[in-house]
């Protein structure tokens, strides 16, 4: 008894010095000035272009083209926004509504398809399960441009060209969403599902009433990512939309550069309009995004 205790104490004593200094060293570096200087520099790299876009949208044409560059505009004006909203050939509000409808419907469809597929791969046992998972993951390495022509032909066969359905349905069964939710589902304790089975719940009830409610961070994260991907998509809407009033915001605002080739405030004002809804969305869901990313992919 005493020998075992001594060995255990010796082992614990031998491990303690190895882990303690490492944690203290990590905390020291994390709280040190070098860490925070690096974080500030990284934040500026991402924030400066956005701030420059906002500032330029309120500049005059002369200020936007002045050399040396004027960081602070000599005079603040909303001429660029008035020009965009008053242009009948550029229905910005209609484009924004199209983008909102398409991105929201696409995100909802992604959550429905990905949650069912991910639960099957995470919890159900069937022949070829590992092969199926590997096949789905392998599609992540295929460039997206390869799917442009097949998807275009499919939309043409379905009669969905120049409609929002062409923006909503393609990509709803993407591999990333399935893999992301699958990694979250495998971390859920099986005891919760076993308790539901004992209470008489079927597979669908377990998914909808047990698994999905406690997977809110992952679902919100995937929904936001799907929304942003659809909202910011530029190439695909140009392929499948032809009518000016059917355009989405990124595709429609691209025409501003052609119509106002040297009017940089107008171009930046259009980019500002497209970015504001995204920033507002992120402010409200950032807590879920951080939690969802931190708790997904911990084990395979």
UniProtKB/TrEMBL annotation:
<keyword id="KW-0472">Membrane</keyword>
<feature type="region of interest" description="Disordered">
    <location>
        <begin position="1"/>
        <end position="25"/>
    </location>
</feature>
<protein>
    <submittedName>
        <fullName>Carbohydrate ABC transporter permease</fullName>
    </submittedName>
</protein>
<keyword id="KW-0813">Transport</keyword>
<feature type="transmembrane region" description="Helical">
    <location>
        <begin position="92"/>
        <end position="119"/>
    </location>
</feature>
<feature type="transmembrane region" description="Helical">
    <location>
        <begin position="164"/>
        <end position="181"/>
    </location>
</feature>
<dbReference type="InterPro" id="IPR000515">
    <property type="entry name" value="MetI-like"/>
</dbReference>
<dbReference type="InterPro" id="IPR035906">
    <property type="entry name" value="MetI-like_sf"/>
</dbReference>
<feature type="transmembrane region" description="Helical">
    <location>
        <begin position="219"/>
        <end position="242"/>
    </location>
</feature>
<feature type="transmembrane region" description="Helical">
    <location>
        <begin position="131"/>
        <end position="152"/>
    </location>
</feature>
<feature type="domain" description="ABC transmembrane type-1">
    <location>
        <begin position="96"/>
        <end position="285"/>
    </location>
</feature>
<keyword id="KW-1003">Cell membrane</keyword>
<feature type="transmembrane region" description="Helical">
    <location>
        <begin position="34"/>
        <end position="55"/>
    </location>
</feature>
<keyword id="KW-0812">Transmembrane</keyword>
<keyword id="KW-1133">Transmembrane helix</keyword>
<comment type="similarity">
    <text>Belongs to the binding-protein-dependent transport system permease family.</text>
</comment>
<dbReference type="Pfam" id="PF00528">
    <property type="entry name" value="BPD_transp_1"/>
</dbReference>
<feature type="transmembrane region" description="Helical">
    <location>
        <begin position="262"/>
        <end position="285"/>
    </location>
</feature>
């Amino acid at each position: 008894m005493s020998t075992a205790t001594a060995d255990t104490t010796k082992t614990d004593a031998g491990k303690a010095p190895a882990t303690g200094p490492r944690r203290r060293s990590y905390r020291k570096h994390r709280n040190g000035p070098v860490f925070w200087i690096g974080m500030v520099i990284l934040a500026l790299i991402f924030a400066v272009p956005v701030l420059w876009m906002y500032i330029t949208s309120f500049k005059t044409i002369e200020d936007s083209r002045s050399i040396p560059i004027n960081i602070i505009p000599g005079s603040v004006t909303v001429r660029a926004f008035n020009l965009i909203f008053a242009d009948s050939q550029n229905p910005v509000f209609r484009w924004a509504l199209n983008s909102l409808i398409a991105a929201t419907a696409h995100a909802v469809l992604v959550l429905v398809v990905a949650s069912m597929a991910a639960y099957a791969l995470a919890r159900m046992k069937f022949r070829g399960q590992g092969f199926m998972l590997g096949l789905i993951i392998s599609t992540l390495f295929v460039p997206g441009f390869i799917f442009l022509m097949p998807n275009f032909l499919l939309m043409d066969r379905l009669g969905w060209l120049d409609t929002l359905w062409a923006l909503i349905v393609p990509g709803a069964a993407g591999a990333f969403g399935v893999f992301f939710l699958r990694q979250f589902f495998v971390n859920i304790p099986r005891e919760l599902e076993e308790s539901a089975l004992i209470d008489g719940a079927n597979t669908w009830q377990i998914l909808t009433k047990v698994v999905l409610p406690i997977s809110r961070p992952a679902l919100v994260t995937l929904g936001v990512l799907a929304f942003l991907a659809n909202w910011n998509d530029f190439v695909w809407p140009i392929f499948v939309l032809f009518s000016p009033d059917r355009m989405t915001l990124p595709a429609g605002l691209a025409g501003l550069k052609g119509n106002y080739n040297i009017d940089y405030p107008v171009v930046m004002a259009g980019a500002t309009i497209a970015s504001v809804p995204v920033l507002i969305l992120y402010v409200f869901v950032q807590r879920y995004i951080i939690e969802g990313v931190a708790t997904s992919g911990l084990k395979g």
